[in-house]
Amino acid sequence: MRRRDFIALLGGAAAWPLAARAQQRAALPQIGILDPGIPQHFGAFRTGMRDLGYVEGKSISYIYRSAAGRAGPISQFASELVALKPDVIVGASAVPVHALKDATSTIPIVFVLADALTIGVVSNLAHPGGNLTGLSFLNTELSAKRLELLLEALPNIRRIAVLRDLNTPRIWAEATEEASRRLGLSLQLLEVAEPETFESAFEGAVNARAEALDVLASAFFNSHKGRLTELAAKYQLPTMYEHDDFVRTGGLIAYGPSIPDLFRRAATHVDRILKGAKPGDLPVEQPTKFALSINLKTARMLGLTVPPTLLARADEVIE
């Protein structure tokens, strides 16, 4: 064999494993992620995937798009993900899930933090049909419960402001409005769509002599929780939030499902779809873990005394 031919043969042999590895990488299942701006929670989803044996770069790959707390680019990102044809797409909250639903009727979608029946992405939790399944949020029911707990913490209040993300379903605010009437509270609804309008909303609440604030559930608010808790402290407004991350950031009180638990459970849906299950045959699951969190340091800063009966029921008390 001529030396030149021998070298070519060696070069080709060395390329075989490289080609095989490249082909293997290309064959990895791809998971698209549409993040409205809550990367910490999608971290819980990836943890759930690792717990099921998926190793990024070896047995799974991710395509990530983040709107970073802005509603504007979500439809574009949904279209981009669909064009890349991943095996499954995971989306969180109402706006991204609707955008994904509009963008594809064939690629499986697993949603989290979407009140599935209320926002109309499925009509039946047990048999969702179509290409969507996931974890529903029960937010309509929780909206009223949060207001009840806020009143229990502050039994003397009569005027309350409610902060709503304009991109969320109006029915969530309606559930809170109905609860306020039942509880004998005067309610002022403040609606915002951009973080630049947060402070004017707080100023409006104070000018209307609101005695407390209820921040309705929203991935947009979640992505700006530091700013919201900062403004609540600045304007001395005792505030109820949707989950414990706000309380750990300095908020007064929060009640809601365990968000990391929901995202970890979403990994099970993805796993079953990758193994051949149809999303429409997988029941939409609901929260099983709920937590009441209270920040006593914030309560003291606001000059409040939280009733001992409420503290005794809290799952987390930050001193």
CATH hierarchy class name of the largest domain:
Alpha Beta
CATH architecture of the largest domain: 3-Layer(aba) Sandwich
State the secondary-structure class: alpha/beta
What is the number of E strands? Answer: 12
Major beta-sheet overview: 7 strands, mixed
Q: How is the largest sheet built, in terms of strand order?
A: 7-6-8-9-10-11-12
Q: Give the overall shape.
A: elongated
Gyration radius (Cα, Å) is 23 Å
- What is the CATH H-level superfamily of the largest domain? Response regulator
Mean pLDDT: 89
Helix fraction, binned, reads 40-55%
Gap from first CA to last CA: 80 Å
The fold-level CATH name of the largest domain is Rossmann fold
**Into which percentage range does the β-strand content fall?**
15-25%
Tally of separate helices: 14
Series of H and E elements? HEHEHEHEHEHEHEHEHHEHEHEHHE
**How many structural units, i.e. domains?**
2
User: Could you list the spans in which at least 5 consecutive residues all have pLDDT below 50?
Assistant: 6-25
Brief characterization of the structure:
This protein has 14 helices and twelve strands. It has helices spanning 3-27, 39-51, 74-83, 94-103, 116-119, 139-153, 170-182, 198-207, 219-222, 225-234, 244-248, 259-274, 296-301, 308-313; strands spanning 30-35, 61-66, 88-92, 109-112, 132-134, 159-165, 186-192, 212-215, 239-241, 253-257, 290-295, 316-318.
What does this 3D model show about the protein?
- This protein is of the alpha/beta class and 319 residues long.
- It has 2 domains: 3-137 and 259-281, Response regulator (Rossmann fold, 3-Layer(aba) Sandwich); 139-257 and 290-318, Response regulator (Rossmann fold, 3-Layer(aba) Sandwich), CATH 3.40.50.2300.
- Helices cover 46% and strands 18% of the residues.
- The strands form 2 sheets. The chain has a 7-stranded mixed sheet, sandwiched between helices. A 5-stranded parallel sheet has the order 2-1-3-4-5, with helices on both faces.
- Strand 3, helix 4 and strand 4 form a beta-alpha-beta unit.
- Helix 2 (39-51) packs across helix 12.
- The chain is elongated and about 60 Å long.
